[in-house]
């Protein structure tokens, strides 16, 4: 099984993208263990057939709709208490739109997001505000997501102004200092401005703001993409520590497949507004069955020269189609080397492929492909 070593000390992790291959004999046990870990209790979030179609309009005075950008087009998944679900995919595939829909920052065109059984896409006003306390977001860019004219104390404390019931007025300064301490910043920095911090420190402030209301779910949209590799490792390690401490559930969105594997229990791969494949980190990274996932993984840099020389590199041809005019049938068919007639006629469902059902092996996970099969793109020798 390929596994990422989770280093204890922040500075001992110079590069979180390093992959450490360990005993292959333990693979099946590890898959079973992972399944058990994510299979506990009711999901905290249940996303069902979620869609966001942005209207395309023409005309100045009399606007008329001439089409729609299908940014998210039927996404379904569950998030369990205490787990991290990674979401990966190329730029423009709809990751940030999914994040905004989960927070109800964008209104869904169709579908549901159940938080502990309650559909939050139908909520507004006070009911929505109450739910939002429990679902917070950490944004990509710590430079633009913090108001440069506010002190750190005001940035984090603002959360308590929006939800005054969460902290009595006289207690807020102490609460902000506690939060700074929790994310590894000196509580005396409370009166400093964002420009007086490094990028990594600013992202810690963003995380402290996300934690202020004791949420249960944190949606992280590319939280480390704007940071140096060594600082990425520190922020990732901090997030893992906070997850254990506060039993947080994360949705972790990123481009970098290695970082996503490092932090995630399960991973969903998105393509053109849909989930192509979803499973545990072992299932997706070591036993991918969808051609798109296989192509993405074949492009990940491998530190070991031997593996690098032997493995197969899948080069995808053609551009990503426009989400305003996706291909018929399987949306990946215009770039898929395995495409056949059926792929143009019938959209594949995200399900465990028939041939793997009952096999109970790591290939038995959900994959939206008519011809799903394993391909050893990472360890080919
Ligand atoms: N408000 C909007 N109006 C119209 N189209 C939009 C809007 N927001 C996003 N889109 C389109 O929806 C698609 C998905 O965008 P989104 O930002 O969710 O992608 P992403 O996967 O987060 O990309 P990236 O990795 O670059 O952040 C893109 O084609 C984008 O242009
Ligand atoms: S359904 Fe067809 S086009 Fe789509 S990924 Fe599978 S083989 Fe490729
Ligand atoms: Mg995005």
Automatic annotation (TrEMBL):
<keyword id="KW-0813">Transport</keyword>
<keyword id="KW-0067">ATP-binding</keyword>
<dbReference type="Pfam" id="PF00005">
    <property type="entry name" value="ABC_tran"/>
</dbReference>
<protein>
    <submittedName>
        <fullName>ABC transporter ATP-binding protein</fullName>
    </submittedName>
</protein>
<dbReference type="InterPro" id="IPR003593">
    <property type="entry name" value="AAA+_ATPase"/>
</dbReference>
<dbReference type="InterPro" id="IPR003439">
    <property type="entry name" value="ABC_transporter-like_ATP-bd"/>
</dbReference>
<dbReference type="Pfam" id="PF08352">
    <property type="entry name" value="oligo_HPY"/>
</dbReference>
<dbReference type="InterPro" id="IPR013563">
    <property type="entry name" value="Oligopep_ABC_C"/>
</dbReference>
<feature type="domain" description="ABC transporter">
    <location>
        <begin position="45"/>
        <end position="297"/>
    </location>
</feature>
<dbReference type="InterPro" id="IPR050319">
    <property type="entry name" value="ABC_transp_ATP-bind"/>
</dbReference>
<dbReference type="InterPro" id="IPR017871">
    <property type="entry name" value="ABC_transporter-like_CS"/>
</dbReference>
<comment type="similarity">
    <text>Belongs to the ABC transporter superfamily.</text>
</comment>
<keyword id="KW-0547">Nucleotide-binding</keyword>
<dbReference type="InterPro" id="IPR027417">
    <property type="entry name" value="P-loop_NTPase"/>
</dbReference>
<dbReference type="GO" id="GO:0005524">
    <property type="term" value="F:ATP binding"/>
</dbReference>
């Amino acid at each position: 099984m390929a596994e990422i070593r989770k280093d204890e000390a922040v500075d001992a992790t110079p590069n979180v993208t390093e992959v450490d291959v360990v005993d292959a004999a333990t693979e099946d046990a590890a898959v079973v263990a992972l399944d058990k870990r994510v299979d506990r209790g009711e999901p905290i979030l249940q996303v069902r057939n979620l869609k966001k179609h942005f209207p395309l309009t023409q005309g100045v005075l009399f606007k008329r709709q001439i089409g729609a950008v299908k940014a998210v087009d039927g996404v379904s998944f569950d998030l369990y208490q205490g787990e991290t679900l990674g979401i990966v995919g190329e730029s423009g595939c709809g990751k940030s739109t999914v994040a905004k829909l989960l927070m109800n920052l964008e209104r869904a065109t169709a579908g549901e997001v159940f938080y502990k059984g309650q559909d939050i896409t139908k909520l507004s006003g006070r009911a929505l505000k109450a739910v939002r306390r429990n679902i917070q977001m950490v944004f990509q860019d710590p430079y633009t997501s913090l108001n440069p004219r506010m002190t750190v104390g005001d940035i984090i404390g603002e959360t308590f102004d929006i939800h005054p019931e969460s902290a009595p007025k006289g207690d807020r300064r102490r609460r902000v200092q506690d939060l700074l301490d929790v994310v590894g910043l000196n509580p005396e920095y409370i009166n400093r401005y964002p420009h007086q911090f490094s990028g990594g420190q600013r992202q810690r402030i963003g995380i402290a703001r996300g934690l202020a209301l004791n949420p249960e779910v944190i949606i992280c949209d590319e939280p480390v993409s704007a940071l140096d590799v060594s600082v990425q490792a520190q922020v990732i390690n901090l997030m893992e520590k906070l997850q254990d401490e506060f039993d947080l559930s994360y949705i972790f969105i990123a481009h970098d497949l290695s970082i996503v594997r490092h932090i995630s229990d399960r991973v969903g791969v998105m393509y053109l507004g849909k989930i192509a494949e979803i499973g545990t980190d072992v299932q997706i990274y070591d036993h991918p069955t969808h051609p798109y996932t296989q192509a993405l993984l074949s492009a990940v840099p491998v530190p070991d020269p031997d593996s690098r020389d032997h493995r197969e590199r899948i080069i995808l041809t053609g551009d990503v189609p426009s989400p305003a005019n996706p291909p018929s049938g399987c949306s990946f068919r215009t770039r898929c080397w395995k495409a056949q007639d059926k792929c143009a006629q019938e959209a594949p469902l995200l399900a465990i492929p028939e041939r793997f059902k009952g096999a109970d092996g790591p290939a038995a996970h959900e994959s939206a492909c008519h011809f799903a099969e394993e391909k050893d793109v990472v360890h080919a020798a």
